[in-house]
């Protein structure tokens, strides 16, 4: 019966996937982009051919990929990039996406990262021949630093959630904020639109990020609120603030952990969307109001692009889609939550005009019996929700495909079922022994840290707070666990991890998981931001493996001269440490050799060298295993 169930499900999946017709439109394919310091921005305009207007589009996902360029280094600074679209023979330009570039100073040649954003609301614009303009801002050296960028539009054909009628550009610019003689509301004025006779509802879509640096940190480092006003009433209130310590792209070279005004370094903006209950053929007014703010010597700017899209009524009363599988997943954007064993997490969206109250969710790992979950909740039209599925996933295979299907929204047939099914790649979490040792060396701020081990259902196996912990002290906790799936969560309330280059006085701490013999089975980076989130499995039928890759770290990264290199390995080896010039790596300034070396802290003083950037390289048995940048300052 198990094999029959799997066969039936597999056959249904094959037919289901076949009905999803997709295409990719790539406007920029591995293109190297650099700044233009003479202007502060650099434009990369490329023409791309999108589907004809007669072709129904279900969704458009913009996939943005960053890599280090082939011939130069990854760029250093967190600049604002805009992706704009213009139809042929039309002068109107639409910002369809906004990217905040990462601090790339630490990234090596093989680095890469990918982001996604849904741009379906611009489907009226993304038709036929379209000029896609990637605008890279900034002033850094454009001879030695840049990015390799790919802009890929993933288009799924099919009946739209609702047919778009028209799109209105409401605001588009950099608006001064905090100026007494020129308040921002002089420019964010109300806009009145007469709805089309076929309009059933409208959607306001906004990209907004805060920039500039006055005495209060505004607009980049201050939290302000924004109201969206529809026909004189506030329909959306938001604090324009984002915590950055849990950024999936970590660590970065700069101040990546600092919370910011609705963005973080290395972030593709996910625009705010607000549904408007417009009446067909009637005028309506929309307005954006910022929190009142004035200051002396202002320099803040709010970068805002806002649109109103009018739609006909939804094409179905009951229509649900699977937006994402978060756990298990190998998508790099979910890397803080994976590899994973435990209760799966998915994101779904209600596309039907009726509130989504219930549905059936079928899910399984390949080769296992499908599980059915009768979900109940309340999700309004256009809204998304996270769902935790009730049965744990685990496979003895290193990788396996995880399948999810959504069925019978509100007990009815889903008219547009092509986006009801998805799959992700499950990667088996590390196997740990029943007895583990948590090795925790505090930094100079131990009061910021706590950690716990919990099973998939939230039961606490072990937890530790910061009471009575001393700075720069090693704590060893021996923990015995029953077989099962677990999560090790190490929290830092300041969001700056156990080391951060900008806070060198806080020192550096370390966290490792050891076996009963003191050998490393998992070693964590200390520059982790807000938390370490590590999933593992305890099994008595699968042997655990050691983490035999040496753990190497240098601190501080910015120094007047003294640095410490921490080295930990399960096995002894011949180790060589080099200090080299960053711009000319063949120029060796210092060489140190250590024979039959296993672990320890190595101190160097580079204060005699010129105040510039250098690389520290570590070789184990002749192979380069570590390279990091250090900066000598006055």
How would you describe the overall organization of this protein?
There is one protein chain. The chain is an all-beta fold. The chain contains 1 helix and 40 strands. Strands 35, 36, 37, 38, 39 and 40 form a 6-stranded mixed beta sheet that branches. Strands 1, 3, 4, 7 and 9 form a 5-stranded mixed beta sheet that branches. A hairpin with a 5-residue loop joins strand 32 (510-514) and strand 33. The longest helix has 17 residues, at 2-18.
Count of strand segments? 40
- Structural class based on helices, strands and sheet pairing: mainly beta
Helix content: under 10%
Mean pLDDT: 94
What is the radius of gyration? 27 Å
Number of helices: 1
**What is the 3D form?**
globular
Low-pLDDT ranges: 1-19
Largest pleated sheet: 6 strands, mixed
Strand content: over 45%
End-to-end distance, in Å? 73 Å
